[in-house]
Amino acid sequence: MLFEELTYQCTMTPPVQMRGGILIVEDHAATARLLHLLLSEAFSAIPVEAVSSAEEMFVKFGGAFPSVVVMDISLSGMNGIEATRRIKAISPTIEVVIHSNLEPGIYSDACIKAGASAYVRKAQPKSQLIAEIRRLLG
Hints:
Layout: H1 3-12, E1 22-25, H2 29-42, E2 48-51, H3 54-61, E3 68-71, H4 80-90, E4 95-100, H5 104-114, E5 118-121, H6 126-137
Parallel strand pairs: 1-2, 1-3, 3-4, 4-5
């Protein structure tokens, strides 16, 4: 689906409001469930949502993104780097944490250029992801 079509769909469906929340964009269902449980517990005072693709994210949230997006790079359809670039074009204040299995040496520069605020490998302790999100939420 083209970005223009997604933008059109976003204008047709009222976006979900998640001020101050965390959005997980992860296409592996088990990983998404684990992250949702972990982040819901760690950040119990704010909403945590999960979607399985960048396209679903743009349709569901339009331009009304939460404060922090936890983004996988290797998504089916639009990849996480392109999705990050588009999020930052819509709303530069949104913080994006890349959460990936891919080695950061190759991808971290592209992620930073796209506007990501942090890069946390999935192999790192989950406390590292929580710490990055806490830092970004201020």
